[in-house]
Every structure is written in structure tokens, then in C-alpha cells.
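Appendix B, Record 12. Input sequence as logged:
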Amino acid sequence: MFFKILIAIAIGYLIWRVSTEVIRMLATAPPEPDPLDVIDTYEHFRCSVCGTEVTMTIRSSTEEAHPRHCREEMTLVWRPV
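Logged structural output:
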């Protein structure tokens, strides 16, 4: 009987620790991007699966890939300015 109570307390403590760590991770804001790494752009992208369109006005200079939507890379679309 005493052993079952100890196991229940241990499991309860484990659930409490994991849930507080998950909440702490979700509550922490991601780090701000370095202003020197952000460049101005004006690109239009379209999802080839569902047709969603995105206009990017800024992006990271280290980011080379197109944005993703519906688990696929979006295609670059030409739009007159």
C-alpha cells in the first residue's frame, strides 16, 4: 500500500514538472532578430496546393528558401508594382 502511494506521488510530481516546463517554454518569447540581418524585399508567393498568397516585405538575409505552406514550398509569383 505504501509503495503504491509513493509511485502515485512520484508520477504526480513528474507530471507537474513536465507541465510547468512546457508552460515555461510556451510563455518565453523567441529572441528578436538582429536588425542587421533583416533586409527589405517585396516578393509575392503562392501555395501550389491551396492557393494561399503571401507578400513578404522583409526577410532574414540568411534565409534562402521560400516560405512553406501546406507542407510544400510556396512558388514565387511575379506581380507588377
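The chain has one helix and five strands.
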